[in-house]
Amino acid sequence: MVSPFDLFSIGHSNHPIDRFIDLLRAAGVTTIADVRSVPASRRFPWFSAKRLGERLAREGFAYESMGDALGGRPRDPSLYRDGVADYAAMAATPAFRAGVDRVITASGVNRVCIMCSEREPLDCHRCLLIAPALAQRGLNIGHILADGTIEPHVATEERLLALAGSAPDLFGADRSERLDAAYRRRAGSAAFRAKG
Questions:
Q1: Residue 50 CB burial class (10 angstroms; 0-12, 13-18, ≥19)
Q2: How many Å is the maximal CA-CA distance in the chain?
Q3: Domain map of the chain by residue range?
Q4: What confidence score (pLDDT) does residue 174 get?
Q5: Which fold has domain 7-190?
Q6: In contact, 34 and 70? CB cutoff 8 Å
Q7: Whole-prediction pTM value?
């Protein structure tokens, strides 16, 4: 059966490692692109980069850390606005665009899944920053949810619009404009906040 998705996203959340691997297998994933800026977890050490990479390799998955280019916690202070990571500024950087290109290239030969830590896609930069950049390039993204269902990114965007209370505008704001505004609002509350 051919999947309608070009690539996937998942949040490791607090899944036991065996459950996490089952979710990947059920979706047909072969490669994990870890987009965490800090690929470590004290609470769930099996998701720290070294241990996760070793376990995934034993299970037949490839693993690549991509937090340097696609992470949600930029090192560059100019990529923050009022102490909050500025997704629009991040998406405009050459490093981010190169990271997106790498994911697209890999998805041409592997079943790639972008991984971060948040369970809910709408609470994570993988959905609010990376997925829109991939969708703009014509890729169909499926978000693997905790219960194993795969939510198409367009359905996630509909949830985003509903959460934002963004109904069709009588004065002409089209879906694209409403969606851009909803992304900005959600990113403002979900994006990484620098300590300062």
A1: exposed
A2: 56
A3: 7-190
A4: 84
A5: Protein-Tyrosine Phosphatase; Chain A (3.90.190)
A6: no
A7: 0.93
Please give the Cα distance from 137 to 148 (Å, whole number): 26
Task: Kindly give the pairing relationship between strand 112-116 and strand 7-11.
Answer: parallel
Residue 106 amino acid letter: A
pLDDT tens-digit series, residues 119-172: 999 999 999 999 999 999 999 999 999 999 999 999 999 999 999 886 665 555
Nearest to 165, CA basis, from 188, 181, 151:
181
Q: What is the pLDDT of residues 50-85, one digit of tens each?
A: 999 999 999 999 999 999 999 999 999 999 999 999
Q: How far is CA 54 from CA 59, 60, 82, 146, in A?
A: 9, 10, 39, 23
Cα 195 to chain centroid distance, Å, stands at 23
Distance in angstroms (rounded) separating the CA atoms of residues 62 and 53: 8
**What residue type is 84 in one-letter code?**
V
CB atoms within 10 A of CB 35: 27
